[in-house]
Structures are given as structure tokens and as C-alpha cells.
Amino acid sequence: MTIDQKSSIAEIVLEHSECATVLAGLRLDFCCRGERSLMAACLERGLDVETVTADLERAVAARKEHDEPDPRGMATADLIAFIVSRHHAYLYEALRFLEPLSAKVARVHGDHNPKLLGVRDTFHDLAESLEPHMREEERVHFPALTASKPDRRLVARELEAMQLEHLHVGELLARLRIFAENFAAPDWACGSYRTLMRELAALELDTLRHVHLETHVLMPRFAGAVTNDASAVSPGA
């Protein structure tokens, strides 16, 4: 198949979820800034669009069949349940594991590579942002969206808060990748160092997929919450 370079990178990931890995590795933000076309995003990053397109098409061609449903076809309540069970559950566990590991690697190897101190501090900021954000989604944001009679003003307020939090998380992820030097472990790295880089890369990709689902599948269903009447907000959409 052929990737349309004029398509937004959010649309590309919606159609072909396997492209998320390629885009994340190239630092092309397909969640908070997913509205850009592939061509525009590559131009902004100084990447050759033909090379990137070829990489994406190879990822699509190599995709293995799986049973994961298309999130666009899920009812809103089911989509939210999927986000919580798949992405929130993973993040709660990963954050608890990685924060002490990042502190340990910074303590042991920070003199050799001072950027590890930035990894430690940025990861701490990320954890401090993500965990309360997820708790707030589960406690306030998601119930507002799935209420039998949604309050459009409340929905609009919660969507705005979610978007601001997503932007902040995106900035922290970008900073983390810079400090982590694209999650590449040097030749002299110990097992803990290598594990940290591998798991940080996995966390970045999962978080990008997570935010992408909320930004480009869940939130657009409630786009009329402010300008239209409450009937435009349909939890079964």
C-alpha cells in the first residue's frame, strides 16, 4: 500500500497503528501535534519525506495480524475501558518500576554521563504529571463523558483540562528523549542502564499511543459540547 504524504500523521496512525513506532523513533509527535501532514512534519524536522514514507510503508507491509479492535468502532464507554485497562494499568506499573531505576542509574553513572541526571529529573516530573492526570481522568474526566445526561459545560471544561495536560506530557516526553539520547545505551552501559533505556522507549511509545487515542478518537466525539446542545454529546457515539 501507499502512504499519502498529505495525510495527517494522526490519520496515518489511526489507519495503521504499526506506524506509531516509526514516527515515535523519528520524534514526530502524532498525538498532540498530529494534525500536521506527514510532509509538513518531515519538513519541520528536516527529514526526507520519501525516506520516512518508505519506512512507514515497510512497517505496514510487515504488520502481523492481531485481534485488537479498531478503537474508532468502539462505543465511548468501551473505548474508555480499553484506555484504562490497557494504558493506565501499564503506566501505573511502569512508573513505579522506572522511577527508582532512573535514580539508581543516575547515581551510579551520572559522573560518566551527566545527561542521566536530566533523565532522572525529567522522568520524575513525568511521573508527577502522569499519575495524577490518570487518576483525575478516572475520577472526573471519563465519568463526565459517559454520563447518561452529560453536562456540556462540564464536558467542555474537562476536555480543555485533558488537552492542556496532554500538551505538558508531550513536552516532558520530548525532553526525556533528548536527555536519554534517543534511548540508546552506550557500549559501556551496565544491565540496569540498558534496561532503563529499553523500558523508557517502551513507555514513550505506549504513552504516545495512549494520548493519541484520547486526542484523536475520544475527544473529537465531544467536539460539539460547547456550541451545540447537550444532545450533541453522545456517550454511545
* Unreliable stretches covering 5 or more consecutive residues: 226-237
**Please, what is the average pLDDT?**
87
Radius of gyration: 19 Å
What is the count of β-strands?
0
What percent of residues are in strands?
under 5%
> What structural class results from the helix and strand content?
mainly alpha
Short description:
By secondary structure, the chain is mainly alpha-helical. The protein has helices spanning about 10-15, 20-25, 40-45, 50-60, 75-110, 115-145, 150-180, 190-220.
Description:
The structure is a single chain. With 237 residues, the chain is mostly helical. It folds into two domains: 9-61, no CATH class; 74-232. 66% of the residues lie in helices and 0% in strands. It has eight helices and no strands. Helix 5 (76-109) runs antiparallel to helix 6 (115-146), helix 5 runs antiparallel to helix 8 and helix 6 (115-146) packs antiparallel against helix 7.
Summarize the SSE layout with pairings.
Layout: H1 9-15, H2 19-25, H3 38-45, H4 49-61, H5 76-109, H6 115-146, H7 152-179, H8 191-218
Helix pairs in contact: 5-6, 5-8, 6-7, 7-8
